[in-house]
Specification:
By secondary structure, the protein is mostly helical. The chain is built from 11 helices and no strands. Bound molecules: iron/sulfur cluster.
Length: 221
């Protein structure tokens, strides 16, 4: 990651970030991961399935999978063609099935079937990028995590908190700006706000709770 943030971190910027988080947390009191899971392994599989797919669709597919495959070794031995059929509706099913099986085999072989709880180890595992690793930490283990998905990227950029387009650099910018104990809440609020108000094509600035604090607001006269 870069050695310095793409924006100048000033006291005013920190105050604006803090106020925005306050307002968005009030607007979305239930902000959090929308994938259904009961274990960190289930969360990890659901997150892999959610790439280029809606959480709603993933939540339709996972209940029967989670009933059948309960441990890493269960996932590791399911034949590729069987898993492909079962997850087909989530898209990119060949790659996803390959990644899930490879990841499960590695967890089974080297980690006693458990999902590791540190970023450096997670990102070395098959199918796990920084976004997924941070989500596992934040949601699965209750640790601080900055989860840069498409909503996070768009909303944080519009709010003027990063000038980067590379997700790793955006993660670095926001990790520098946002206090560590707020990383996860910030991530959830960015996703909720991106899905419900600050959409890609038509941001609803007229009813946005942080419009007066946003440099990209188009509702201003
Ligand atoms: S004011 Fe508009 S662009 Fe800014 S965060 Fe709100 S919806 Fe997005």
């Amino acid at each position: 990651m870069g050695s310095s943030p793409s924006i100048r971190i000033t006291k005013q910027l920190r105050q604006r970030q803090s106020r925005i988080l306050e307002l968005l947390s009030a607007e979305y009191p239930d902000a959090g991961c929308e994938l259904d899971f009961t274990t960190v392994l289930e969360l990890t599989v659901a997150t892999i399935l959610s790439a280029q797919c809606t959480d709603k669709r993933v939540n339709m597919v996972t209940p029967s999978l989670f009933r059948k495959y309960r441990s890493a070794s269960d996932w590791a031995v399911v034949p590729q063609d069987v898993l492909e059929k079962e997850i087909r509706s989530t898209g990119f099913f060949r790659n996803k099935a390959r990644n899930i099986r490879a990841l499960a085999a590695r967890l089974d072989k080297d980690f006693g079937g458990q999902v590791p709880d540190d970023l450096d180890t997670l990102v070395k595992l098959p199918g796990i990028g920084r976004k997924t690793a941070n989500l596992i930490l934040a949601v699965g283990y209750g640790r601080p995590g900055i989860v840069v998905d498409t909503h996070f990227k768009r909303v944080s950029t519009r709010l003027g908190f990063t000038n980067h387009s590379n997700p790793d650099r955006i993660e670095f910018d926001l990790k520098t700006l946002v206090p560590e104990e707020e990383w996860s809440q910030w991530s959830h609020c960015m996703v909720f706000h991106g899905r419900r108000c600050c959409s890609a094509r038509k941001p609803d600035c007229g009813r946005c709770p942080v419009a007066t604090l946003c440099p990209s607001c188009v509702a201003k006269s």
